[in-house]
Structure formats: structure tokens, C-alpha cells
């Protein structure tokens, strides 16, 4: 039997973070993408499907995406792959973040394998291309299955929104470039599982996302209008003077986008509350049916 990707989305933590249980139907070997919390619940789903977990994949070092990684890794002796090393400070900060957010205690970890642009990860017989997509966090990575035309994008892009960049070492220009130059060129038909809220496709976001659509930026895919520097081979905005990335002034991205921001500041502010409104949308829109295990999955991603 040929390898095929199946996926079940399991929202975890009060942030309803979309942890994805992915597996190869030929070998029944699998991985958790962004085991952010509720480890027992995640492992119950693994047992339910009869999957042998092989590794843990991490898109970025935020608490809601990586909070349960250490516990599950220790319990099952699993390797951890990702994110990019630029997220080390986020992973190390998780125990304190857990305290601040009122989460159960969380331990940090050191990934077995750090990832970079162009790497490949495997799960059973499945292959995923790794894209380094900085902006939301400097070491954010995306996992892309070419045969399935499905990407796991963490908090880079959502249906109708993009990741926050008001965190330490967040960078709005990097985020726009990551989306326009590394994700959209994968193809309009490519669907993606975001870190929060419902799935979408790059084509849908190119048409209608108020932050990164062709119309908002006035440009074609593969280009970030108004962005002078392109991403380096290892991602991230390079600066000849060696200025730390978070100290580089943020360029305004695209004439149309800047005008939109001026005309509609409320909408622009909305992005900073995406945790909350995406949670609301996802509760209404997607997860009302998540307990129905008898229903066939809606696609290769399935539904928890
Ligand atoms: Zn995040
Ligand atoms: Zn998140």
C-alpha cells in the first residue's frame, strides 16, 4: 500500500491551538505537529487510531504550540524536530510564559534536530518540505506535503488574518515576505492547517486576506510589494550593519496596504486580538462537529 497522509486536528489549550496528529496510512507511523498542551488527550487520540508515534514536530516556540512537547517526548522517548534555532529564546521562555498565562507548569526542551530552510522531515513513508517563515517568531517553520498539497503553517497565516508581529523579535516585513515568497508560490490549490481557526487555501488568502492578498499589496505572488530586501537563503531580514533584526525600523508594506491601515485602523488593530476572534470563529464554524467520530473525515486532515 502506498503511503498516504491522514490528519486529525485536535484543538488544545485555552487558545484552541490546532495540534495536528498526522500519520502514514501505509505504516501507521505518525507524528504530532505542535503538541501545545493536554498531552493525555493527544495520546488518547494516538491510541484511538492505533498509531505508533515516531516524532514530535514543532513550528515555533510559543507556549500554546510547544507546551506539551517535553512531557510527551520524555514519556515516549521521541525525538523533537523543529523549529529553527532562532526560536530558542521562546522555547526557553515557556516555563515563565506558562506561569504568566495561568497554564499548568511547562518544561522547556532542546530539539533533537533544529530545522532550516530547505530541510526535509519524514513521518513513516511521508516527506515534508521545511520552509523557514520568520516574522511571527524569528525561527518559525512550516511543514509542507507536496503530494497531498497540504501545509501546516502554525501562526504564519490564518483564514482572513496573519500572525501577530508585536512580540519580541517579531517582524511584520519578514512575515509578509514569508507568506508571499515562501508560501503562496507553492500554489493556489495548496490547503493549509493554521495554528488557530479553520483551514483555508493559499489561493483563497491571495484573493481575500486583507493583509496579504494580491489586491491589498498590489502585486503578484512571489513578491512582497514595497519590500526592498528579499529573504536570505536561511530566511530572515539581513542587515549589513549587523543590527539585531528586532531593532531594524519596520518598513510600511505596500501602498495599498498602508492606505488600508489608515482608512480602517480598527480592522488593522483586529489582528492583535486574533487569538480571541479566531477562537470565536472556530468554535462556531468548525469545531461544533468535532466530537462526531463516526463521520468520515472531511479531507486528508480529518476532524477531531
Ligand atoms: Zn505563535
Ligand atoms: Zn498560536
Describe the 3D structure.
This protein is an alpha+beta fold and 304 residues long. It has one domain: 4-Layer Sandwich (Metallo-beta-lactamase, Chain A), CATH 3.60.15. 28% of the residues lie in helices and 20% in strands. The chain is built from 11 helices and 13 strands. It has a 6-stranded mixed beta sheet. Strands 1-2-3-4-5 form a 5-stranded mixed beta sheet, covered by helices on one side. Strands 10-11 form a two-stranded antiparallel sheet. The structure holds zinc ion (2 copies). One zinc ion binds next to loops.
Please describe the biggest sheet, giving its number of strands, its sense, and whether it closes into a barrel.
6 strands, mixed
CATH homologous superfamily heading: Ribonuclease Z/Hydroxyacylglutathione hydrolase-like
End-to-end Cα distance: 25 Å
Overall number of strands: 13
- How many structural domains does the protein architecture include? 1
CATH architecture assignment name: 4-Layer Sandwich
Strand content: 15-25%
Task: Write a brief caption for the model.
This protein has 304 residues and is α+β, with helices and mostly antiparallel strands. The chain has helices at residues 39-49, 63-66, 69-76, 88-92, 94-101, 172-183, 202-208, 214-217, 255-263, 265-270, 274-285; strands spanning 5-12, 17-24, 29-33, 52-57, 80-81, 120-123, 126-132, 141-145, 150-154, 157-158, 161-162, 191-194, 200-201. It has one domain (8-289): Metallo-beta-lactamase, Chain A, CATH 3.60.15.
